[in-house]
Design brief:
- Helices cover 28% and strands 22% of the residues.
- It is α/β, with parallel strands linked by helices.
- The chain has two domains: 185 residues, 3-Layer(aba) Sandwich (Rossmann fold), CATH 3.40.50; 117 residues, Rossmann fold.
- The strands form four sheets. Strands 4-1-5-6-7-8-11-12 form an eight-stranded mixed sheet.
- The chain is elongated.
- The mean pLDDT is 95.
Length: 330
């Protein structure tokens, strides 16, 4: 008989760990209490090492929390864990999972999950999501894929995941590429494998600020100029394939001459174009003025990537090259 696989489970709080309080649900359950509520877990040949790492709502997690978590996960793998499961609030899963994906250099799977319905609600989805995440963390087919997100029996690559509904249990989708696998009848199927992106492992992290400006009808250059003065880098969530009002162009061009400004699309799917339109404020006009195309990365993912690149001390040329690679357009 072979020894059961060991999985390290880190709970960070979130809806999956919430119980009713005086004014609504709050993150109170520990990692052990979460696991105790999972039907069928005893039928899996797995040894669980559990740690209540944080007890926070997803909205209150920080980059510092995730960098510290990454070090704890590395320690767990060095101590024999075959995979890692992280439970947290869904508010920020599409961002935190991508942070972990960029920081994780081991072949062992990191699987993030949570719940849209707290444990006091009928049809709470946390136990099923947690069981699917543990199965995925022990699967050989999930190795060397970086950070994955398991929700609703679907397996998503962290890079493409988005939360698209405020309350549905099917809130998580990957608009451009779809899920890379599924959990079916207790078996993990991962028929699609994607190449790993860059992995960032600097010795020290700089303190940086990266802004996200979502362009809206009638915007001029004043607000983006003000934000640009306060940050080390800026993501522009533009219209359509990468367009902004003409009145915003001078401000963006000025900012792009002194700091990285990344052009993403606010639409939710599809890449930023590079040479289709030619009017002032079009994608080709902005790229000619020094903005960096985000490709298929949505604004939130683009901000995560730019933040970690700047915090690791990478220069503008490397930032441009990394976005070309990660954004999926070469």
């Amino acid at each position: 008989m072979t020894a059961p696989a060991r999985v390290a489970v880190f709970s960070l709080g979130g809806t999956i760990a919430m119980v009713p309080g005086a004014n609504g649900v709050v993150p109170t359950l520990t990692a052990k209490e979460l696991l105790a509520a999972v039907p069928g877990l005893d039928n899996i040949a797995v040894e669980l090492d559990v740690q209540t790492f944080r007890q926070l709502p997803g909205a209150s997690l920080s980059f510092a929390d995730l960098i510290e978590l990454t070090e704890a996960m590395k320690g767990a793998v060095l101590n024999g864990a075959a995979g890692v499961v992280v439970t947290q609030g869904t508010d920020t899963i599409e961002e935190t999972a991508y942070v972990l994906d960029l920081l994780w250099e081991d072949e062992a799977p990191v699987v993030v999950t949570g719940a849209m319905r707290n444990p006091s609600m009928a049809g709470a989805d946390g136990p099923a999501n947690l069981l699917g995440a543990i199965r995925t963390a022990t699967s050989l087919s999930a190795r060397d894929l970086g950070c994955l997100v398991v929700f609703n029996d679907q397996i998503h690559a962290a890079r493409w995941l988005r939360k698209t509904h405020t309350s549905s249990t099917a809130a998580f989708v990957s608009p451009n590429h779809g899920p890379i696998g599924h959990v079916v009848e207790g078996h993990v199927d991962v028929p699609l494998r994607m190449a790993r992106g860059p992995i960032l492992t600097p010795d020290t992290w700089r303190t940086v600020k990266v802004g996200l400006f979502t362009v809206a009808l009638g915007d001029g250059g004043e607000l983006v100029s003000t934000m640009g003065q306060e940050v080390d880098g800026l993501i522009v969530g533009a219209f359509g394939v990468g367009h902004v009002p003409a009145g915003m162009v001078p401000a963006l061009a000025k900012l792009a001459s002194v700091k990285p400004v990344v052009l993403a699309s606010r639409t939710g799917a599809g890449p930023v174009h590079e040479q289709t339109y030619g009017f002032e404020g079009s994608e080709s006009d902005l790229l000619a003025r020094g903005l960096i195309p985000a490709g298929y990365l949505d604004p939130l993912k683009a901000r995560i990537l730019l933040y970690l690149l700047l915090a690791s001390g990478v220069g503008t040329r490397s930032i441009r090259e990394t976005f070309a690679e990660v954004g999926g357009r070469g």
